[in-house]
Specification:
Layout lengths: L7 E5 L6 H8 L5 E3 L6 H9 L4 H11 L28 H10 L11 H13 L8 E5 L7 H7 L4 E6 L2 H11 L5 H22 L4 E5 H6 L1 H11 L12 E2 L2 E2 L21 H4 L2 H17 L14 H18 L1
Parallel strand pairs: 1-3, 1-4, 2-3, 4-5
Antiparallel strand pairs: 6-7
Helix pairs in contact: 2-3, 4-5, 7-8, 8-12, 12-13
């Protein structure tokens, strides 16, 4: 079999679209080695490390890729402060660092090699890496914008892009980024989703898979069976039980919910939380892409809209007409 470092699986999608849930469902599969946290490899490590000497790249890998294993419950480092439930104290940072160095060789290492080396180092120290390991998994939002690098560097790579109803995605993400206006979010959701659709058209469904968050929640066995086939893996019931680094996952909800199983509660939450005007703005900007991803627009009572709001909506309608004409 080809070396595992040549067989990555990248999870793609907009933040708060279900990427974490998908990653935790893959976590328990015996043939997969799933990195427990986002690396932001393409957006953070790559621009910082390109062109640097090998030893500086190693230092950056410690700071930006494997830093998550510097864990201290009593005096938490910055990356741990807002995530008290993520405890990797049983995984030695020093051992991961040594394993990382062991997978790399000065003079024979490209910058792309640091990501699989970091994942394999975690796998080796945690015991996840074994003779049955067939692929490694990394999840960072917006991986969809780096498919040219992904498929050039790893021709056997697979990408799974998860899409969520933009209305639910917005009410969830708004809690994380309250400064984001509905316009900013909607345009970003469209850009991310259209990138996924374009990637699937370009690379084919055998290399780039799109799934809807709602389908995963409502029909988890059917969707995870499709995912297993896409990855050439045997289906296993562990694909229905979310875990992180082998431990039960307590959810990643922005609504202070804790759960340890797949739940349909996040579907349709926007119906109670979205006012008519932001709902209308979302549907105007996202409308065409919603249709392409099988999300139906809702009827909106616009009788109480101000003239300023109506003008804003008409501006977006005209922009969309010009963009797609």
């Amino acid at each position: 079999m080809a070396k595992i470092e040549n067989h990555p699986v990248f999870i793609c999608g907009h933040p708060k679209a279900g990427t974490s849930l998908l990653k935790t469902l893959l976590d328990g599969h015996p043939a997969l080695m799933v990195y427990p946290e986002e690396t932001l490899f393409f957006r953070r490590f790559l621009p910082a490390a390109e062109g640097k000497p090998f030893k500086e790249q190693l230092d950056l890998a410690e700071q930006l890729l494997i830093h998550i294993f510097e864990w201290n419950q009593d005096n938490p480092p910055a990356h741990q402060v807002n995530f008290p439930d993520r405890d990797y104290s049983d995984i030695s940072f020093e051992d991961v660092r040594d394993a990382l160095k062991g997978f790399l060789a000065e003079g024979d290492t490209q910058v792309k090699d640091f990501l699989p080396a970091a994942v394999r180092a975690f796998g080796k120290v945690s015991g996840v890496l074994n003779e049955g390991s067939q692929a490694w998994v990394e999840k960072s939002p917006y991986n969809e914008f780096y498919t040219e690098e992904i498929f050039n560097w790893w021709p056997e790579a697979r990408c799974i892009h998860i899409v969520r109803d933009p209305r639910d995605n917005y009410v969830s993400y708004k809690r994380k980024q309250p400064s984001w206006t509905v316009r900013v979010f909607a345009r970003n959701w469209v850009r991310s989703t259209q990138a996924g659709l374009a990637n699937q058209a370009k690379y084919g469904g055998e290399r780039y898979m799109l799934i809807r968050f709602e389908d995963l929640l409502m029909n988890p066995e059917a969707v995870t069976r499709d995912v297993a086939r896409f990855l050439d893996l045997s289906w296993d019931e562990v694909l229905l039980q979310p875990t992180r680094a082998g431990d039960a996952w307590r959810g990643n909800s922005m609504f202070d919910e804790t759960f340890q199983a797949i739940s349909t509660d996040p579907i349709g939450r926007w119906k109670d939380l979205l006012e008519p005007y932001p709902l209308a703005m979302l549907q105007v900007i996202c409308g065409k892409t919603m249709t392409r991803t099988a999300y139906n627009k809702a009827e909106i009572d616009d009788r109480d809209f101000t003239w300023k709001q109506r003008i804003g909506l008409w501006r977006e309608i005209i922009k969309n007409l010009l963009r797609f004409s």
